[in-house]
């Protein structure tokens, strides 16, 4: 069974003193508005990007990446500021131009010795991302913290800690690709669109939907107790194209659904398996949350290069009994309805709902699926080619399951999750399809 610390080398990393990297030119100062879509996901996300050694080695890696960061921050200047609280009691960026935090480090082994980096491992992989000492909350952590760790083999790892309130997955990917383009002396393919006021709430707010993503579910199965008290085991499950096709066939074979996507089939399959593995009582309500990209769904569509959060959480709720007594098509149908629900009016209603209530999505008896499988983090090139591997250091919450693309063609999906030891054993058995 996989424990949290699943990697083979006892990684020892020596970090230099952190420095600040301000934008290379004077940038706008003052307060920068964050929308209600940014407020709800103000968690730090830690990721790593591993680069193998090539003929030029890693001697200049930190300098090249640091210089490029200074230049790219001219375009993305809010990331050089600091988070603070506005007069309305919301998160806002104070564009001070102080700069991102940058740390150089060296490791005592080769990248290969890191072992299986496809599983989240906060203990080992966490050493590759710099933690701000003594930070008590997100206001004390700059929006962007970078660490470049050189390995003995000539390879290096870029470890990032970024606040989700700054970027969703697509915006983060565009920022990182712009950073890579700058390092290679190229112009930005997608310049950032920084004005987030396009997502201002309506005055007066118009709440037209129920917004059960915020609903508090009574945890009669004591799921949260299990998830938070027992030791968590982390694992990853690879679904290759054949397995994904098999799931789609399974979901449509009873004729209830005409068709479904790979995402819908996989999400339903893991939601059902997790409900079963956690031994939820039949009348326990269970909630599914997942983010839908609003860029093509807003009317009018969001400008290209929108540099913020344009994702909205959609949801589905049913009882564990309903889920497990019905065929897979029932749960896939629920996922499809949740996808269809995310219309322009629903998303604007969600923005207004937060304005009125300041509610946070409740995670009791909930599964939150985060999909990175459509994001091209694997193409971020600072001049050393594409990363050997890119992915998260840890999952942001214990209720989160992450979908990552995998393999040469990126056609497989790796499902990463943590569960209490007892539940993980059952979950592993249920993954055999």
UniProtKB/TrEMBL annotation:
List UniProt keywords, sorted A-Z: Acyltransferase, Transferase
Keyword Transferase present in the record's keywords: the answer is yes
Give the superkingdom in one word: Eukaryota
Q: Which residue intervals make up region (Disordered)?
A: 1-21
Concerning Pfam families, the annotation shows: Transferase
Biased composition, class Polar residues, residue ranges: 1-13
Q: Which GO terms describe its molecular function?
A: acyltransferase activity, transferring groups other than amino-acyl groups
Family label: Belongs to the plant acyltransferase family.
Query: What protein name is recorded for this chain?
Result: Omega-hydroxypalmitate O-feruloyl transferase
Origin species: Carpinus fangiana
Q: What is the lineage of its organism?
A: Eukaryota, Viridiplantae, Streptophyta, Embryophyta, Tracheophyta
């Amino acid at each position: 069974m996989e424990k949290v610390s699943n990697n083979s080398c006892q990684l020892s990393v020596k970090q230099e003193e952190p420095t600040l990297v301000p934008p290379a030119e004077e940038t706008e100062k003052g307060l920068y508005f964050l929308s209600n879509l940014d407020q709800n996901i103000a968690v730090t996300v830690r990721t790593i990007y591993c680069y193998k050694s090539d003929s030029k080695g890693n001697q200049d890696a930190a300098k090249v990446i640091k210089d490029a960061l200074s230049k790219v921050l001219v375009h993305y200047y809010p990331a050089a500021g600091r988070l603070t609280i506005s007069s309305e009691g919301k998160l806002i960026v104070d564009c001070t131009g102080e700069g991102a935090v940058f740390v150089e480090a060296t490791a005592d082994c080769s990248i290969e010795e890191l072992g299986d980096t496809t599983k989240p491992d906060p203990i080992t992989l966490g050493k590759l991302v710099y933690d701000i000492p003594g930070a008590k909350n997100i206001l004390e952590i700059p929006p962007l913290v970078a660490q470049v760790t050189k390995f003995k083999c000539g390879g290096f790892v870029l470890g990032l800690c970024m606040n989700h309130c700054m970027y969703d997955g697509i915006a983060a990917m565009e920022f990182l690709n712009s950073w890579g383009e700058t390092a290679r002396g190229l112009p930005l393919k997608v310049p950032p669109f920084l004005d987030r006021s396009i997502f201002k709430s309506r005055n007066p707010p118009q709440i037209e939907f129920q917004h059960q993503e915020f609903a508090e579910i009574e945890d009669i199965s004591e799921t949260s107790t299990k998830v938070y008290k027992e030791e968590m085991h982390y694992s990853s499950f690879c679904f290759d194209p054949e397995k994904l096709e098999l799931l789609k066939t399974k979901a449509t074979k009873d004729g209830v659904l005409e068709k479904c996507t790979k995402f819908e089939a996989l999400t339903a399959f893991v939601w059902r398996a997790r409900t079963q593995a956690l031994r939820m009582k039949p009348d326990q309500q269970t909630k599914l949350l997942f983010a839908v990209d609003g860029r093509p769904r807003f009317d009018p569509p969001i400008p290209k290069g929108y540099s913020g959060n344009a994702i909205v959480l959609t949801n589905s709720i049913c009882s564990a009994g309903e889920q497990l007594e019905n065929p897979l098509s029932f749960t896939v149908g629920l996922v499809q309805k949740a996808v269809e629900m995310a219309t322009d009016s629903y998303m604007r209603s969600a923005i207004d709902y937060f304005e009125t209530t300041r509610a946070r999505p409740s995670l009791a008896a909930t599964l939150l699926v985060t999909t990175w499988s459509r994001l091209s983090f694997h193409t971020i090139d600072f001049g050393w080619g594409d990363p050997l591997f890119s992915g998260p250091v840890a999952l942001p919450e214990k209720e989160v399951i992450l979908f990552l693309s995998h393999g040469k063609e990126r056609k497989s999906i790796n499902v990463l999750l943590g569960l209490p030891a007892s539940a993980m054993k059952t979950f592993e058995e249920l993954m055999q399809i």
